[in-house]
Amino acid sequence: MAALHHYFPILTWGRSYSRVTFADDLLAAVIVTIMLIPQSLAYAMLAGLPPEVGLYASILPLAAYAVFGTSRTLAVGPVAVVSLMTASAVGEVAAAGTADYLTAAIVLALLSGAILLVMGILRLGFLANFLSHPVISGFITASGLLIAIGQFGTILGVPVRGDTLPEIGTALFANAQAINVPTLVLGVLTLGFLYAIRLRLKAMLMRLGLGSRPADMIAKAGPVFAILVTVVAVKLLDLGARGIALVGEIPQGLPVPGWPVIDLGVVQALFVPALLISLIGFVESISVAQTLASKRRQRIVPDQELIGLGAANIASGLSAGYPVTGGFARSVVNFDAGAQTPAAGLFTALGIALATLFLTPFLADLPRATLAATIIVAVLSLVDFGALWRLWAYSRTDFAAMAATIIGTLLLGVEPGVVLGVVLSLVLHLHRTSRPHIAIVGNVEGTEHFRNVDRHQVQTVPHVLTVRVDESLYFANSRFLEDRIAELVAERPALRHVILMCSAVNAIDSSALESLEEINQRLKDSGIRLHLSEVKGPVMDRLRTTQFLAHLTGGVHLSQFAAMRATD
Amino acid sequence: MAALHHYFPILTWGRSYSRVTFADDLLAAVIVTIMLIPQSLAYAMLAGLPPEVGLYASILPLAAYAVFGTSRTLAVGPVAVVSLMTASAVGEVAAAGTADYLTAAIVLALLSGAILLVMGILRLGFLANFLSHPVISGFITASGLLIAIGQFGTILGVPVRGDTLPEIGTALFANAQAINVPTLVLGVLTLGFLYAIRLRLKAMLMRLGLGSRPADMIAKAGPVFAILVTVVAVKLLDLGARGIALVGEIPQGLPVPGWPVIDLGVVQALFVPALLISLIGFVESISVAQTLASKRRQRIVPDQELIGLGAANIASGLSAGYPVTGGFARSVVNFDAGAQTPAAGLFTALGIALATLFLTPFLADLPRATLAATIIVAVLSLVDFGALWRLWAYSRTDFAAMAATIIGTLLLGVEPGVVLGVVLSLVLHLHRTSRPHIAIVGNVEGTEHFRNVDRHQVQTVPHVLTVRVDESLYFANSRFLEDRIAELVAERPALRHVILMCSAVNAIDSSALESLEEINQRLKDSGIRLHLSEVKGPVMDRLRTTQFLAHLTGGVHLSQFAAMRATD
């Protein structure tokens, strides 16, 4: 039973569901639905898919997450970065606009769902931790730029395809003479309108006496106003005839659940992209879910979140949708609007289903440039070059990881970019720990304290050398320690004792143990005894299972002070 | 000038060269030369190359290392594992016995030399640290097995080719009916003879009154006796006519220095193998060099060693040789025989040059089975399954890395095997540090000490939670910390303060810093203050460059005791 409740969180919150929470959830769902309609159409367009696919990806996936997810307020559905990654991945295996392209997107959702499910069941959520903040931050900034520049083409009336900055740039310049002026005017006006709403509307509404929260909600519905206004403009001024690209006929009605015809070659080609989409989507989703949950002291279970997102993606694939994850902006709106339980997600799904049934005829006259403008405004808020300078101040290695991810993503595309960032941040981390800080320490006169000889006025004696290693000892730094000690010993002809102060050593792996044996043996050959001091309990427990302590020429001392007295 | 001496260690030791060291070096060189002649022929055969290539690889490379190397006693030349790796790599791009095969081996030496040189100049020696002891140990054990089984074919008179255990095994069984009985008899007798010498000769000689060291030297020359005896037997009994494969005509004379015709496709195909050969060769070489140097309190400079080995490999490639490195057994003999300076290497090179000029006619009648027997005896001493059980007792992860490397190398071949081992050991290391030990600590009554509540009888209060993280905080574990704290907080409704005890935190990267900001913010949203205690100096220096301390809701306390008092 406990296991059932673990895997189906709906059994826990569903039991105590009340009329009050129903009202709260319903209000939040209405607001999120209004926000999600334009977003789902826009992100589907960004993914190179027909607009209805965005709507389909906003119905069943939300219901699936409501059953399996542990966040009370996460709003699942299409998001910008995952849509860009979808376009990049699917564009490799099929031509845009074909039935194969759509099928590949569906397969990608199923594959990504399966990967997330398996990761959740096998508790592999820790894999997502290898995406460091600088890499994610750099990736999102670069993706935001790629998306904005690509959508800029739609606003110029010259939609461009391309996975990298050079490709998109070349396509833009090559088609520069094809710019459609009415589209450009409409696009720029919409952009200006959206920015004005974003920057001014909330303050205006508050001056009119509205509270901060409702004012914020209304301001966030800016894209809806833009859609209403431009659709009406298209109808009144017959802008379609002036060359403004419209969304066009959207099939009315709910998606027909079904299983796509799966080509094994496509699955193989999409596996790595699906893995990256899963990891990036999971990291984005869990981070907003954690932030919101902690505001109400609720708990997120990361491995169950993987299952929730996996179920959502499988539901998306089974209902002709494409990969989804938890979106940042929508989740915050859902939370602020008062959503109490995942039922809000169920009601949002219902809202989108109703929109799919009844609203689609109205959307046929929607200019694509309007959607492009909403995307640009949304993604430019993701671009954060300021993070680069903050990182520069704090850590050059983290700066390098973020800069490499940005440059890699812009020049090579989303997948190579993120892989480059992950590999580089791992290598830099290993490089750092492979050259740990090793201090020579001496006694602070009159005390039992020992400090770095380079930083403090301390006493040392020529026949004893004490080194403190500020890092766990493992294979990547064990040889460094050997080299460093050999070097220090070679400089000190009077040396008779070496004390290794282990207060900062949290672990010693077998490579490091062999290095210690080696160091002990070499020192012995030179007539020098090796001592350890301040070894931590768990490390000592491990050492006791080996022959090392029997071979050790010196002693193991509880404190550095005791070690010094033993070498007198 | 200092730089010149750094890059040319010969300028340092050469200046103080004396007649006494000359005599010592010369004696050592004579002994090593006697040992090296059969080894160089045997390892060339193992690499699938004509025997003279082994001799060529034992002349100029030794001279080059004597100029650039920092070890006084390292004996450079062909070694077993690198020869196996050469056979595997070159076998991928050319058919054994062809001129292309020889050229590819030469290109491999040049490539490996260039990689080592570049690594030395860019100080990338730390890359070798990513080969953990379990991986190297597993790789050498598996290589030893592969070599021994392959050479067993030569002893049966059915030489087999193959890079993996299944391939070699299949080839052996497929050719089982082709066994040549005279070869088998000769091979088994030689094996028995070599083992008898290895196990008994030293003790026998010592009983006859010889000192331990000369007795050891003579015992190590066992292969030379085997060669003498079997060549004489071949001549007397005309064994060549009985189907015993002989080494055959060896071109008399020194190698003609030259630059091979280099095919870019071959270079590309050999790059990764050359990198692996460089790393494995370097690790093996540096480890014996360090061990020997420390016995005389001398210093090895790892980055300069890369340059020394790089120069040796380039010299090998320029003189029709194949990849070389510092050999364990020969270096120990060189050291024990009294070598004082790298001049011993120069004299050994001279010795091999003389052998190439005058000894080769005699070696034409050498049975290949004799060489195979010497290889088997040499490599079986590399096989160390005992290490597996020692690792099992100390660390399951290290055991897994070694076992995977052995199995991977046996089943997939040398390159995939070592890559698998490296990747697995990195993943296991990251996995371990991604789930650090996090202890809840309490006060030991009446003291200022704080200990794990699970291990000790300590006091805690319900409104304060103190956690101690036993690991540096970085991207792979920062989210784990977030999750763990969120979990602990959700269980404690009375909580008002969280203290993070940082005594074991050696570094905080920017991802972890963002996580701390996140934790601080979330705790603030829940009305809980976050404090830090016992932050190390360098970590605190870093934190001072950020806004984190300004945002921190609680304080930073010098000791955990002070932190507890501040939360009263």
TrEMBL record, chains A, B:
Matches recorded under CDD domains: STAS_SulP_like_sulfate_transporter (cd07042)
Protein localization: Membrane
GO biological process: transmembrane transport
Presence of keyword Flavoprotein: no
NCBIfam families: sulP (TIGR00815)
Gene behind this protein: sulP
Species: Georhizobium profundi
Entry membrane topology: Multi-pass membrane protein
Keyword check for Secreted: no
Listed GO CC annotations: membrane
Membrane-crossing segments per the record: 26-47, 53-68, 75-95, 101-122, 134-158, 178-197, 218-237, 265-286, 306-324, 344-364, 371-393, 399-428
Top-level taxon of the source organism: Bacteria
Pfam families per the UniProt record, alphabetical: STAS, Sulfate_transp
Protein name as catalogued: Sulfate permease
Ranges of residues in domain STAS: 454-568
Keywords, comma-separated and alphabetical: Membrane, Transmembrane, Transmembrane helix
